[in-house]
Design brief:
heterodimer, A: 114 residues, 7-stranded mixed sheet, 4-stranded antiparallel sheet, B: mainly beta, 11 strands, globular
Protein backbone atom coordinates (compact mmCIF):
# COMPACT_ATOMS: atom_id res chain seq x y z
CA UNK A 1 0.00 0.00 0.00
CA UNK A 2 1.81 3.11 -1.24
CA UNK A 3 -0.82 5.72 -0.38
CA UNK A 4 -1.16 6.59 -4.07
CA UNK A 5 -3.83 4.65 -5.95
CA UNK A 6 -4.12 4.57 -9.72
CA UNK A 7 -6.99 3.21 -11.81
CA UNK A 8 -7.32 1.41 -14.07
CA UNK A 9 -4.18 -0.73 -13.78
CA UNK A 10 -4.38 -1.73 -17.42
CA UNK A 11 -6.02 0.01 -20.37
CA UNK A 12 -6.21 -0.96 -24.02
CA UNK A 13 -7.68 1.61 -26.37
CA UNK A 14 -7.88 2.47 -30.02
CA UNK A 15 -6.41 5.64 -31.44
CA UNK A 16 -9.82 7.26 -31.77
CA UNK A 17 -11.04 6.46 -28.26
CA UNK A 18 -11.30 8.84 -25.33
CA UNK A 19 -10.41 7.56 -21.88
CA UNK A 20 -9.22 8.90 -18.54
CA UNK A 21 -6.65 7.77 -16.00
CA UNK A 22 -7.32 8.45 -12.34
CA UNK A 23 -4.96 8.98 -9.42
CA UNK A 24 -5.85 9.46 -5.76
CA UNK A 25 -3.42 10.06 -2.91
CA UNK A 26 -4.14 9.46 0.77
CA UNK A 27 -0.93 11.02 2.13
CA UNK A 28 -2.14 14.56 2.73
CA UNK A 29 0.20 15.88 0.05
CA UNK A 30 -0.29 19.08 -1.91
CA UNK A 31 1.64 18.32 -5.11
CA UNK A 32 0.82 15.68 -7.70
CA UNK A 33 2.63 14.55 -10.83
CA UNK A 34 2.17 12.54 -14.01
CA UNK A 35 5.14 10.60 -15.43
CA UNK A 36 5.53 8.44 -18.52
CA UNK A 37 7.71 5.33 -18.28
CA UNK A 38 8.71 3.74 -21.58
CA UNK A 39 10.93 0.71 -22.02
CA UNK A 40 14.65 1.47 -21.77
CA UNK A 41 14.10 5.18 -21.10
CA UNK A 42 14.26 7.17 -17.86
CA UNK A 43 11.01 8.29 -16.33
CA UNK A 44 9.73 11.39 -18.12
CA UNK A 45 7.94 14.09 -16.17
CA UNK A 46 4.75 15.21 -17.90
CA UNK A 47 2.81 17.51 -15.57
CA UNK A 48 3.09 18.97 -12.07
CA UNK A 49 0.26 20.35 -9.95
CA UNK A 50 0.67 22.15 -6.63
CA UNK A 51 -2.43 23.08 -4.62
CA UNK A 52 -4.54 22.23 -7.70
CA UNK A 53 -2.63 24.66 -9.93
CA UNK A 54 -0.53 23.40 -12.83
CA UNK A 55 3.07 24.46 -12.31
CA UNK A 56 4.74 22.40 -15.01
CA UNK A 57 3.84 21.15 -18.49
CA UNK A 58 6.89 19.42 -19.90
CA UNK A 59 6.02 20.06 -23.57
CA UNK A 60 3.40 17.33 -23.53
CA UNK A 61 1.23 16.93 -26.68
CA UNK A 62 -2.30 18.29 -26.33
CA UNK A 63 -3.79 14.81 -26.77
CA UNK A 64 -2.92 14.44 -23.06
CA UNK A 65 -5.08 16.71 -20.91
CA UNK A 66 -4.56 16.76 -17.13
CA UNK A 67 -7.13 17.77 -14.54
CA UNK A 68 -6.62 18.34 -10.82
CA UNK A 69 -9.94 19.09 -9.07
CA UNK A 70 -8.37 19.01 -5.59
CA UNK A 71 -5.06 18.17 -3.92
CA UNK A 72 -6.01 14.50 -3.55
CA UNK A 73 -7.13 13.69 -7.08
CA UNK A 74 -5.45 13.89 -10.45
CA UNK A 75 -6.75 12.81 -13.83
CA UNK A 76 -5.16 12.37 -17.23
CA UNK A 77 -7.64 12.60 -20.09
CA UNK A 78 -6.58 10.85 -23.25
CA UNK A 79 -7.83 11.35 -26.81
CA UNK A 80 -6.58 10.54 -30.26
CA UNK A 81 -3.47 8.82 -28.94
CA UNK A 82 -0.69 7.36 -31.07
CA UNK A 83 0.95 3.93 -30.84
CA UNK A 84 4.11 5.52 -29.39
CA UNK A 85 2.01 6.66 -26.43
CA UNK A 86 1.87 3.06 -25.21
CA UNK A 87 3.70 3.07 -21.87
CA UNK A 88 3.32 2.86 -18.11
CA UNK A 89 1.83 6.10 -16.77
CA UNK A 90 2.79 6.80 -13.19
CA UNK A 91 1.24 9.23 -10.76
CA UNK A 92 3.21 10.58 -7.81
CA UNK A 93 2.62 12.96 -4.94
CA UNK A 94 4.75 14.94 -2.51
CA UNK A 95 4.22 17.41 0.30
CA UNK A 96 5.03 20.29 -2.02
CA UNK A 97 6.66 20.80 -5.40
CA UNK A 98 9.91 22.14 -3.97
CA UNK A 99 13.25 20.53 -3.16
CA UNK A 100 13.74 18.21 -0.19
CA UNK A 101 10.26 16.74 -0.58
CA UNK A 102 10.44 13.18 -1.93
CA UNK A 103 7.82 11.94 -4.35
CA UNK A 104 5.80 8.79 -3.69
CA UNK A 105 4.51 6.80 -6.64
CA UNK A 106 1.43 4.78 -7.46
CA UNK A 107 1.63 1.44 -9.25
CA UNK A 108 0.80 2.97 -12.62
CA UNK A 109 -1.58 2.36 -15.49
CA UNK A 110 -0.23 0.17 -18.28
CA UNK A 111 -1.59 1.78 -21.45
CA UNK A 112 -1.63 0.01 -24.81
CA UNK A 113 -2.70 1.84 -27.96
CA UNK A 114 -3.93 -0.34 -30.79
CA UNK B 1 18.68 19.63 -19.41
CA UNK B 2 20.05 17.72 -16.47
CA UNK B 3 21.00 14.10 -17.08
CA UNK B 4 22.05 11.26 -14.84
CA UNK B 5 24.35 8.41 -15.76
CA UNK B 6 23.46 5.34 -13.70
CA UNK B 7 25.67 2.26 -13.70
CA UNK B 8 25.79 -0.59 -14.08
CA UNK B 9 22.79 -1.12 -16.34
CA UNK B 10 22.36 -4.67 -15.02
CA UNK B 11 23.86 -7.01 -12.46
CA UNK B 12 23.65 -10.76 -12.01
CA UNK B 13 24.79 -11.88 -8.56
CA UNK B 14 24.60 -14.80 -6.17
CA UNK B 15 22.51 -14.64 -3.04
CA UNK B 16 24.61 -13.34 -0.17
CA UNK B 17 26.83 -11.10 -2.28
CA UNK B 18 27.08 -7.35 -1.80
CA UNK B 19 25.91 -4.97 -4.54
CA UNK B 20 27.02 -1.47 -5.44
CA UNK B 21 25.53 0.93 -7.98
CA UNK B 22 26.04 4.62 -8.59
CA UNK B 23 24.83 7.70 -10.37
CA UNK B 24 26.79 10.63 -11.67
CA UNK B 25 25.75 13.94 -13.14
CA UNK B 26 27.35 16.97 -14.72
CA UNK B 27 24.97 19.14 -12.67
CA UNK B 28 24.57 19.54 -8.94
CA UNK B 29 21.48 18.36 -7.07
CA UNK B 30 20.02 19.37 -3.70
CA UNK B 31 18.54 15.95 -2.98
CA UNK B 32 19.38 12.41 -4.06
CA UNK B 33 16.74 9.69 -3.93
CA UNK B 34 16.94 5.95 -4.52
CA UNK B 35 13.88 3.98 -5.64
CA UNK B 36 13.19 0.31 -6.31
CA UNK B 37 10.62 -0.87 -8.84
CA UNK B 38 9.24 -4.40 -8.86
CA UNK B 39 7.51 -5.81 -11.97
CA UNK B 40 3.99 -4.46 -12.36
CA UNK B 41 4.43 -1.89 -9.61
CA UNK B 42 5.50 1.71 -9.25
CA UNK B 43 8.83 2.89 -7.84
CA UNK B 44 9.09 2.68 -4.05
CA UNK B 45 11.28 5.15 -2.19
CA UNK B 46 14.19 3.41 -0.43
CA UNK B 47 16.43 6.22 0.80
CA UNK B 48 16.39 10.01 0.59
CA UNK B 49 19.60 12.05 1.01
CA UNK B 50 19.50 15.77 1.74
CA UNK B 51 23.07 16.87 2.51
CA UNK B 52 26.34 16.62 0.64
CA UNK B 53 28.45 13.90 2.26
CA UNK B 54 25.45 12.35 4.03
CA UNK B 55 25.58 8.59 4.54
CA UNK B 56 22.23 6.95 5.32
CA UNK B 57 21.23 3.35 5.95
CA UNK B 58 17.91 1.54 5.67
CA UNK B 59 18.38 -2.04 6.83
CA UNK B 60 20.83 -3.71 4.43
CA UNK B 61 20.83 -0.64 2.17
CA UNK B 62 23.33 2.20 2.48
CA UNK B 63 23.44 5.28 0.28
CA UNK B 64 25.68 8.33 0.17
CA UNK B 65 25.28 11.85 -1.20
CA UNK B 66 28.56 12.76 -2.88
CA UNK B 67 30.39 15.78 -1.51
CA UNK B 68 30.43 17.44 -4.93
CA UNK B 69 26.61 17.05 -5.04
CA UNK B 70 27.01 15.46 -8.47
CA UNK B 71 26.95 11.80 -7.52
CA UNK B 72 25.48 9.18 -5.22
CA UNK B 73 25.91 5.48 -4.62
CA UNK B 74 23.72 2.71 -3.23
CA UNK B 75 25.08 -0.42 -1.59
CA UNK B 76 23.08 -3.54 -0.75
CA UNK B 77 24.73 -5.96 1.64
CA UNK B 78 24.10 -9.72 1.81
CA UNK B 79 21.64 -9.76 -1.09
CA UNK B 80 18.54 -11.97 -0.96
CA UNK B 81 16.19 -13.08 -3.76
CA UNK B 82 13.59 -10.42 -2.95
CA UNK B 83 16.16 -7.72 -3.78
CA UNK B 84 15.46 -8.49 -7.43
CA UNK B 85 14.09 -5.48 -9.29
CA UNK B 86 15.06 -2.24 -10.98
CA UNK B 87 16.82 0.38 -8.89
CA UNK B 88 16.58 4.04 -9.90
CA UNK B 89 18.50 7.02 -8.67
CA UNK B 90 16.92 10.44 -8.89
CA UNK B 91 18.36 13.88 -8.36
CA UNK B 92 16.14 16.72 -7.28
CA UNK B 93 16.45 20.43 -7.71
CA UNK B 94 19.56 22.48 -8.12
CA UNK B 95 20.02 25.19 -10.68
CA UNK B 96 16.88 26.01 -12.62
CA UNK B 97 15.20 22.67 -11.93
CA UNK B 98 13.93 23.47 -8.46
CA UNK B 99 11.77 20.65 -7.15
CA UNK B 100 11.97 18.51 -10.28
CA UNK B 101 13.25 14.94 -10.27
CA UNK B 102 15.72 13.75 -12.88
CA UNK B 103 15.92 9.96 -13.08
CA UNK B 104 18.73 7.61 -14.03
CA UNK B 105 18.14 4.83 -16.54
CA UNK B 106 17.92 2.18 -13.83
CA UNK B 107 19.98 -0.82 -12.71
CA UNK B 108 18.36 -4.22 -13.22
CA UNK B 109 19.36 -6.52 -10.38
CA UNK B 110 19.04 -10.30 -10.64
CA UNK B 111 19.86 -12.45 -7.62
CA UNK B 112 20.45 -16.17 -8.07
CA UNK B 113 19.58 -18.34 -5.04
Amino acid sequence: ETGVTQTPRHLVMGMTNKKSLKCEQHLGHNAMYWYKQSAKKPLELMFVYNFKEQTENNSVPSRFSPECPNSSHLFLHLHTLQPEDSALYLCASSQGDRDYQPQHFGDGTRLSIL
Amino acid sequence: GQQLNQSPQSMFIQEGEDVSMNCTSSSIFNTWLWYKQDPGEGPVLLIALYKAGELTSNGRLTAQFGITRKDSFLNISASIPSDVGIYFCAGQGGGTSYGKLTFGQGTILTVHP
